[in-house]
Design brief:
alpha/beta; Rossmann fold; six-stranded parallel beta sheet; 10 helices; 22% strand; binds NADP nicotinamide-adenine-dinucleotide phosphate; acryloyl-CoA reductase (NADH) activity; ADH-like_C; Acryloyl-CoA reductase; EC 1.3.1.95
Length: 322
């Protein structure tokens, strides 16, 4: 913090500068998430103690471990547990982490595949699991996804395609329509056109479920467009922290609005990562065209463009030796 404002810069640190932990990791990949971009530019109160190495997720190799569960050379994954928020995170070549936050690389995934999926795919998997608990099946109807060019949406498209669901991608940038179809969307809708139309008390009921990454009026529209007993998962706030809603979808169609928080308990982490490396594993030919790599020196300019809505796809910080 400088004069009450968060300021980000690239610095050389020693191991002793990092927050304490039993496991020291040589980083291979750190996902660059919307939340990281907000915290790097002080746009929201995310980081809970300064100075802090940001980066809410990473995949790397154990260099040293004082915990019996992890051995040098083992590839591991860290996300959640306030990584990059209350503990130093992934935007660093060497990371030191409490053993209680570390997970072995899930079966069925390479280090790159695991990093490419990361928090976005885990979040999408949480939403799909919740939809299934609410009764969603592939023949229930299509699943809508907003912010379709973003990392959560792209991984959701891959997972839904793999699991036999039809997905409708909703984007502000129709120039990405072909890429979204290649990523797994069966239909692409223009968010601008949706928002330009005069709102109705209830819209045509067209979605069995929806993953909303943006908030604001699109979330309200999704609720009004969801079928009887359908379920909308509120995942993100790329457009807004709030929305003006109508009660009609709830009292006329028994629509459910559920919240998703990716910092899941261990049982759910193990269960969903096993699926992401197994029967929910997206076809990586769909994901790789959307995967981009940057270096530490590009992080600040990249994250600024991300917040301005100029980027799309999934971005990974790639470290030497990855
Ligand atoms: N609940 C959780 O645990 C959890 C976990 C992960 C992420 N999230 C949140 O979920 C959201 C999506 O994450 P992400 O990783 O996919 O982010 P992302 O890669 O930055 O993508 C967000 C997408 O939203 C759309 N968008 C961006 N700015 C917008 C604006 N001003 N108005 C309308 N649409 C806008 C863009 O899609 P188009 O260009 O295609 O319209 C963009 O690609 C973020 O808010 C993130 O913080 C929450």
């Amino acid at each position: 913090m400088v004069d009450g404002r968060a300021e980000s810069r690239l610095e050389e640190l020693t191991l002793d500068d990092l927050s304490p932990g039993e496991v020291v990791i040589r980083n291979r990949y750190a996902g660059v998430n919307f939340k990281d971009c907000l915290s790097l530019h002080g746009k929201a109160k995310i980081i809970s103690g300064f100075p802090r190495v940001a980066g809410i997720e990473l995949v790397g190799d154990v260099l040293r471990s004082d915990a019996a569960a992890f051995a040098p050379g083992q590839t591991v994954l860290v996300h959640g547990f306030q990584t990059g928020i209350a503990f130093d995170g992934g935007f660093s070549e060497i990371v030191r982490v409490p053993a209680a936050h570390v997970q072995a690389l899930p079966a069925g995934l390479t280090a790159l595949e695991c990093a490419a999926l990361g928090v976005p795919a885990f979040t999408a998997a949480m939403a799909l699991e919740r939809f299934q608990m609410e009764g969603l099946r592939p023949d229930s109807g299509p699943v809508a996804i907003t912010g379709a060019g973003g990392a959560v949406a792209l991984s959701a498209l891959g997972i839904l395609a793999r699991t036999g669901h039809r997905a409708v991608a909703i984007t502000r940038r129709m120039e990405q329509a072909e890429a979204l179809r290649a990523a797994g969307a069966s239909e692409v809708l223009d968010a601008g056109q949706i928002l330009a139309a005069p709102p109705r008390a209830l819209e045509k009921a067209q979605f069995a479920a929806a993953i909303d990454n943006v908030g604001g009026p699109l979330l309200a529209w999704l609720l009004r467009s969801t079928q009887d007993q359908g379920c909308v998962a509120c995942v993100g706030n790329a457009a807004s922290n709030s929305f003006d809603g109508s009660v009609l979808p709830f009292i006329m169609r028994a629509v459910k609005l559920v919240g998703i928080v990716a910092n899941a308990p261990w049982e759910q982490r193990h269960r969903l990562w096993a699926r992401l490396g197994g029967d929910w594993k997206p076809d990586f030919d769909r994901l790789t065209p959307q995967l981009g790599f940057i270096g530490l020196d590009e992080l600040l300019s990249f994250s600024e463009a991300q917040l301005a809505g100029r980027n799309s796809g999934r971005a990974l910080l790639r470290f030497e030796g990855a």
